[in-house]
Every structure is written in structure tokens, then in C-alpha cells.
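## retry 2 of 3
previous attempt timed out at serialization; input unchanged, resubmitting
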Amino acid sequence: MKALKKTFRLLHFLGFYIGNILQANVRLAMDVLRPQMRLRPGFIKVSLTVETDLEILMYANLETMTPGTVVLDVSPDREFLFIHSMYVSENDEERERTGQELQRHVLEVMR
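## retry succeeded, writing output
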């Protein structure tokens, strides 16, 4: 039963992540093809809910594989991840939510 639950979580995660990848690809392609680009590049400080080295590694790699984002560094206290994104919101709440959903899915798969 536990293996079935893990399998379902993994399939759910894959669907979520593939959807994110496709959405990011379409958004970036549309911006490149438009006469006026809507890029708003900048840096984001993301609070980490993942804790172990493996969880941080998995989250950072998945975030970097998403088109338009690159993970730059982990804070020395492992509380934050610094990300460069092509689309940075001016809304503080939206910036704070960046990465939280992906971290939640990583934790579901890893724990």
C-alpha cells in the first residue's frame, strides 16, 4: 500500500512538473516572438521548506531546469535559495510564493 501511495505521489509530481515546464517554455517563446518583450529579470530570495541536502539539491535542480530560472546559491544557514528569474513580480506576496509549490511537491515525493 505504501508503494502504491509513493507511486501515485510520483506520478502526480511528474504531471505537475511537466505542466510547469511546458507553461514556462510557452511563456518564454511567446515573449521572444513578440515585438515587445515582457521580460522582468531579477533576483529572488526564496525561503526553503526543504531541509536535507538531497531535498535542497532536488529542488534546486528542478528549479534550474525550468526555463527562465537559474539557482545561484544557497544561504550559509540553508534557510534561503537565491534565484535569477526572467519574470520577477513586483508583488511581494507573489515573490514569496515563488518556489513554494514546487518545494511542497518535492517534499511529497521525498518523504
